[in-house]
Amino acid sequence: MSNPWRRSTGERGQATFTLIIVIAVVAVAVVLLYRTAWTAQSIDNKAGNIAKTAGGINTSTDAVLKLERTNELAGSILETAKPLQGELDEIVGLAKSIDGLATSINGSAGTINGTAKNINGTVSTILNTARDINAGVIQINRNIDTTIAVANQIKVDTGNILGQAVQANRETACIANGPLTGAINSPLC
């Protein structure tokens, strides 16, 4: 028979392991989101510089000189933004993984709940069996008490029978060896 406690312990261990994995995945997602926010802040700073620099292009005569700087900043923004797509894809993948793990945890919780209900039913059966055994032991003790009382009565009766047998033996000896036969010196009489 399988041990329901061992099975319950294994499922609890699986749920704990799954929870640890979810926590690790969430931590990685937070780090990636932080890196994304930092990169976005860098882009925002560069865009601010571009806005400041580009603001004077329409009104300034040195707009052509600033265009080169603008192109450099735009190229820098483009290079900075390139890793974001991979990180965003990774974040989406991690989110899907978290969703799958949450579904798995939910399923494990259902299994654990079912196991707990089975254990509860088994404990109820064991309790009823223990009560039946207790009632049987009480009845056995009563029967033993009755048997001991009967045995004591039998002992008294056998003592009486033995005493009567000794008396009958003496009287038989007296009759056999008594005055009728002429042997009056019998040790039993």
Q: Report the total helices.
A: 2
Profile the largest sheet: none
**Oligomeric state:** single chain
Residues in helices, as a percent range: over 70%
Question: What is the chain-wise order of helices and strands?
Answer: HH
Instruction: Please give the number of β-strands.
Output: 0
Describe this structure in words.
This protein is mainly alpha-helical and 189 residues long. The chain has a single domain (4-138), classed as Helix Hairpins (Orthogonal Bundle), CATH 1.10.287. 88% of the residues lie in helices and 0% in strands. The chain starts with a helix and ends in a 12-residue tail after the last helix. The mean pLDDT is 78.
Layout of helices and strands:
Blueprint: H1 4-55, H2 63-177
List keywords for this structure.
189 residues, mainly alpha, Helix Hairpins, 2 helices, 88% helix, rod-shaped
Brief synopsis:
With 189 residues, the protein is an all-alpha fold.
